Amino acid sequence: MALLHRASIVPTKLEAINAWLPQQPWALDAGEVETLGAFRFDDPAGEVGVETFLVRDAAGGVLQVPLTFRGAPLPDGERWLVTTMEHTVLGPRWVYDGCGDPAYVATLAATIADAAGEAREVVRQDDGTEVERDPSARAHGTGGAAPLADTALDVGRALGEDAVTDVDGWTLVRVGGATLGVSRHPAAAPSDPPAGVLTGHAGEATGPLLLATLTR
Q: Where is the Maltokinase N-terminal cap domain (predicted)?
């Protein structure tokens, strides 16, 4: 379950994404993007927010932007830092490209391997009550692939530079004897997706998309 708070955030998540994307080799021509939807994964330790955004670029294409949100800097994570932001409930937050953050890598791998889906979203109200809401995007793993090192990654340190590469619109993360492929420009998913992939969609804004793969 992802516990959310009614709060103001500066900069907003979309502002942070728009400022960061032009520096990425897979998004040089993205222009101003708009959010189509987002889904979250559960961090088992409950420390790191893990949220993936599906956004539409200026040309009408879909980009996938996974982010992590931390209450303290990720050691050795400067390469992956997207921005810092102020959250009116949680205080300062350090925001990272998920592909460099083991918390995202572990939760993505586990979701694929376990044929699981996005986390439930529960919003804590000002009076302390909690209300569940529907995610604005959905994701589902197809199972059939062993998670990376049983997903027991060291969530305290960023992944080494040689573990993460960008190739033809995909970010490849090699760790634990396996490779996670994160599609930065997700295309339509096959009607009968194979084992070892993550598919998802942002409501009626997109059809089923192939978001990620897990291979050994």
A: 20-101
* Domain spans in the chain, listed from the N-terminal domain onward: 2-215
pLDDT, tens digit (0-9, with 9 covering 90-100), for 160-196? 888 999 999 999 999 878 899 999 999 999 999 999 9
| pLDDT tens digits, 57-78 | 999 999 999 999 999 999 999 9
Q: What six digits make up the tokens of 66?
A: 């996974």
Residues 140-170 as b or e (16 or more Cβ within 10 Å = b)? bbbeebbbbeebebebeebbeeebbeeeebb
Distance CA 123, CA 106 (A): 24
Distance CA 17, CA 15 (A): 5
Give dist(CA 5, CA 22) in Å, integer.
Answer: 29
- Cβ atoms within 10 Å of 108's Cβ, excluding its own: 28
Model's pTM, two decimal places?
Answer: 0.91
In contact, 109 and 148? CB cutoff 8 Å: yes
* Distance, CA of 33 to CA of 150 (rounded, Å): 35
For 22-44, b/e burial (b = at least 16 CB within 10 A) is: eebebbeebeebebbbbbbbbbe
